[in-house]
Amino acid sequence: MSGRIPVHGYRIVHKYPHNLSFWTQGLVFDRGFLYEGTGEYGGSGIFKIVPASGQILQSRTLEAEYFGEGITILGNRLIQLTWKSHIGFVYDKDSFALLKTFSYPTEGWGLTHNGRELILSDGTDTLYFLDSESFTVLRQIKVAASGRPVEGLNELEFVNGSILANIWQSDHIVQIHPESGVVTAWIDLTGLLDSSSDKTADVLNGIAWNPATDHLFVTGKLWPVLFEIEVVTTPPIRRP
Predict the structure, then answer these.
(1) In which region does residue 145 sit, left (phi positive, over 0), alpha (psi from -120 to 50) or beta (all else)?
(2) How far is CA 26 from CA 5, 11, 199, 217, in A?
(3) 85 within domain boundaries
(4) Would 205 be classed as within a structural domain?
(5) pLDDT tens digits for 86-99?
(6) d(CA 28, CA 70)
(7) Given this model, what pLDDT does residue 100 score?
(8) For residue 2, is it within any domain?
(9) Which CA distances in Å does 42 have to 23, 37, 126?
(10) Number of domains in the chain
(11) Which CATH number is 97's domain given?
(12) pLDDT tens-digit profile of 123-146?
């Protein structure tokens, strides 16, 4: 994280309760509600949640053979990946009824879309763009910061023309140019959750965007809190 790539900070806007049993894999904000996808064999599912209270309005669990991963909402469909099964699930967003399944060649980690194509991460430095109807891979990009590969790309969100990605086992989110794969900014969330506040909390994971406020919802695996944050932008470091 050097050179001229800006490193942004954050301001906490609100704190909301988060289910301590949720191994968070995907997070989406849609029309006032949060949709969360969770992982673990025997504990994976999708959930519709009231942000302010954490109340679960609707849920659907995966069979124990599947380890749930990232989710996204495109139109009236909620789409969910699995980790190593190479199988994705397409649900009706309102009823959570299963509409179809599809396959993909990589592991599934994070998922988002740009309005036309699905964007999938597999834990490496590669992002895959899939046709949103046939689910075939159309293209892929390598993600790099100052010429160096950025690996561990996990949960994804498409925000204002850029891809945001959690970096696995870190407190950072990267902002990625969707055509070149170049990292255009880092968001440093160090200190967001005090590690001493809950010994069971695991890594940061989960990004959802509210376009009405331009705020992000972020949380982590087994975290007791969901945070609404404003990204505090900083200019690139200018060296003499």
Answers:
(1) beta
(2) 27, 22, 22, 11
(3) yes
(4) yes
(5) 999 999 999 999 99
(6) 10
(7) 96
(8) no
(9) 11, 13, 28
(10) 1
(11) 2.130.10.10
(12) 999 999 999 999 999 999 999 999
Residue 211, classified by CB atoms within 10 Å of its CB into exposed (0-12), middle (13-18) or buried (19+), is exposed
- In this structure, are strands 98-103 and 33-38 parallel, antiparallel, or unpaired? unpaired
What is the DSSP track for 116-172?
Answer: SEEEEE-SSSEEEEEETTT--EEEEEE-EETTEE---EEEEEEETTEEEEEETTSSE
The reply to whether 175 falls in a domain is: yes
Q: Could you tell me the residue range of the domain that residue 207 belongs to?
A: 7-232
Beta bridge partners of 204: 220
Q: pTM above 0.90?
A: yes
* Half-sphere exposure for 101 (CA within 13 Å, toward CB): 8
* 110's tokens: 């994070």
- Residues 77-113 as b/e (b if ≥16 CB within 10 A, e otherwise) read ebbbbbbebebbbbbebeebeeeeebebebbbbbbbb
Q: Are 25 and 69 in contact (CB under 8 A)?
A: yes
